[in-house]
Design a protein that fits this description.
Layout: H1 12-47, H2 51-70, H3 76-97
Length: 98
């Protein structure tokens, strides 16, 4: 029977790979949190009808997405898709408010 528990690395290269992956996990978690919270905050502002504040926050959201793309946390086209959809959401809200 194969054990489902993770085992300790045997070789030195496996030890290093484990160390690197733990370090990467911290960076990825931070980047994911920044991106998700920025998008969530922007959507919240739009739903509350605070369009001017949402427009001011848009560059912050773009920055978070671009950083996620830069460290290859998300792919380039995925980042472009996120930015496009956020902008579309904002533009629809602006058009609806007029």
């Amino acid at each position: 029977m194969i054990s489902t528990k993770s085992t300790m690395p045997v070789t030195s290269s496996a030890t290093k790979a484990l160390r690197v992956s733990k370090k990467k996990k911290v960076f990825n978690a931070r980047r994911k949190g920044d991106q998700e919270s920025a998008i969530k905050d922007l959507k919240k502002l739009i739903k509350e009808g605070k369009i001017k504040e949402a427009e001011k926050m848009l560059p912050t959201v773009y920055k978070a997405i671009d950083k996620a793309v830069k460290i290859k946390f998300i792919k380039k086209n995925a980042g472009a898709r996120y930015k496009s959809r956020i902008t579309l959401f904002l533009n629809k809200a602006k058009a609806g408010k007029k």
